[in-house]
UniProtKB/TrEMBL annotation:
Species in which this protein is naturally found: Triticum urartu (Red wild einkorn)
Annotated stretches, region: Disordered: 20-60
Protein name: Homeobox-leucine zipper protein
Biased composition regions of type Gly residues, renumbered to the chain: 41-54
Compartments where found: Nucleus
DNA sequence: TTGTGTTTTACGACCTCC
DNA sequence: GGAGGTCGTAAAACACAA
C-alpha cells in the first residue's frame, strides 16, 4: 500500500517515509522483540491482528505495520484531532478508540523518555557544578595556607629585627591565629599583627575567616 | 520450563476547552 | 455536555536468564 495514499497528504509528511527504511526504532530490544514475535505468529491472524493462541480480543497487539504507521503519524503531529483519528482508524482497520488510546500511550512514553533525558542532563550539570565547587574550595585552602606562611615569615622577620607589636594599628591588620592547626583558620580568638596589611590583596579579614568549609576543622 | 522484569494495550477518573 | 487531554494502573504480551 502506498504510504501517501494510506495517510493522505494532509496527515503525513513524506519525509518520514523517505527515512522509513533507516528509521531508527526507539531501541534495539524492541526491534528484536517484534521480529521474534512476527516470526512466531506468522504475521498475525489474517485480519491485521496478532493474537497469541486465541488471547483476549480486548487486548490485541497491533501489527508491525499498524504500529509503524501510527508512529509516523505521531511524529507528524502528537495531538490527534477527530478527523485524523477516524482516518487512521479506517485506513489501519482499527477502532478509532484504539487509535486514540495508542496516541495517549505514545505521548506518555514520549514524556517519560523526555523526562529521563532531562534528568540525565541536569544530573550531569549538577555533578559538574559540584566538581567545580571542590576545585574552588581547594584553591581557597591553598591560598589560605600561602597567607599563613607569609604572615609567619613576616612575624619571624619582625622578631629578628626586634620589632614588637604594640596593638596600635588594628585597622586592616591580618589576623593570624595561634595554637593548633585546627584553630588556624577558625573564627576563634586571634592575635592581631599590626603593621601588616594584606587587605588590599586579600580583602577584608572577615572574608578570609568565612570561606573555610566546616569539614576542614573536623 | 519457569520465574521475573519490561513493554504494550486498555481502561477509569479527573480536568480543560469549546 | 461532549471530545480529547493527562495520570495512574491492570493485565496481556513479550524477552531473557537460570
Amino acid at each position: 500500500m502506498d504510504n501517501q495514499q494510506l495517510f493522505g497528504s494532509s496527515y503525513v509528511d513524506t519525509r518520514f517515509f523517505a527515512a522509513n527504511g533507516t528509521a531508527q526504532r526507539e531501541s534495539q530490544p524492541k526491534a528484536r522483540r517484534r521480529r521474534r514475535r512476527a516470526a512466531r505468529c506468522g504475521g498475525g491472524d489474517g485480519n491485521g491482528w496478532e493474537m497469541d493462541g486465541g488471547g483476549d480480543p480486548k487486548k490485541r497487539r497491533l501489527t508491525d505495520e499498524q504500529a509503524e504507521m501510527l508512529e509516523l503519524s505521531f511524529r507528524e503531529e502528537r495531538k490527534l484531532e477527530t478527523g485524523r483519528k477516524v482516518y487512521l482508524a479506517a485506513e489501519l482497520g482499527l477502532d478509532p478508540k484504539q487509535v486514540a488510546v495508542w496516541f495517549q500511550n505514545r505521548r506518555a512514553r514520549h514524556k517519560s523518555k523526555t523526562l529521563e533525558q532531562e534528568f540525565a542532563r541536569l544530573k550531569h550539570a549538577h555533578d559538574a557544578a559540584i566538581l567545580h565547587k571542590c576545585h574552588l574550595e581547594n584553591e581557597v585552602l591553598r591560598l589560605k595556607e600561602k597567607l599563613r606562611a607569609t604572615a609567619e615569615e613576616v612575624q619571624r622577620l619582625r622578631s629578628a629585627a626586634g620589632i614588637h607589636a604594640n596593638g596600635g594599628d588594628s585597622a586592616g591588620a591580618v589576623s593570624v591565629c595561634g595554637g593548633s592547626p585546627g584553630s588556624s583558620f577558625s573564627t576563634g580568638t586571634c592575635q592581631q599583627h599590626p603593621g601588616f596589611s594584606g587587605a588590599d590583596v586579600l580583602g577584608r579579614d572577615d572574608d578570609l575567616m568565612m570561606c573555610v568549609p566546616e569539614w576542614f576543622f573536623a
